[in-house]
Amino acid sequence: QMLICFLIFHRSNRELWTILLGRSSFREAAQITEELNQHSQRLLEGLSYYKLPSANSAAKVKADKNVSAPLKELALRVSKFLSLDEEQSVQLLQCYLQEDYRGTRDSVKVSRKHRARM
């Protein structure tokens, strides 16, 4: 139930950008206003929304049973590379895989195997 609540009320930065550009499914001004008001602080913060890595965040990612081991591993590497909070790295990767990745599940597995050999 908490996950459903998170999915309903949490918008990715990409989704917020889509709303701002007028490319979302929202057509009613009241819907758009509500979404923008709900996330106004994040919009105002801009890039400062993103946090630096922390031991606490890394521990939460490692303990999260809803995140697969390969995604955790990649998120922790991304976090280190970008100096980005570990939980936010997971969110970033999940958004990428859901919205932008054009390969198949099998090609992700092949890429992972290839990387392991390097």
From TrEMBL:
Top-level taxon of origin: Eukaryota
GO MF annotations in UniProt: structural constituent of nuclear pore
Record-linked InterPro entries: Nucleoporin_Nup188_N, Nup188
Domain Nucleoporin Nup188 N-terminal intervals: 31-107
Protein name as catalogued: Nucleoporin Nup188 N-terminal domain-containing protein
Taxonomic source organism: Anolis carolinensis (Green anole)
Top-level taxonomy: Eukaryota, Metazoa, Chordata, Craniata, Vertebrata
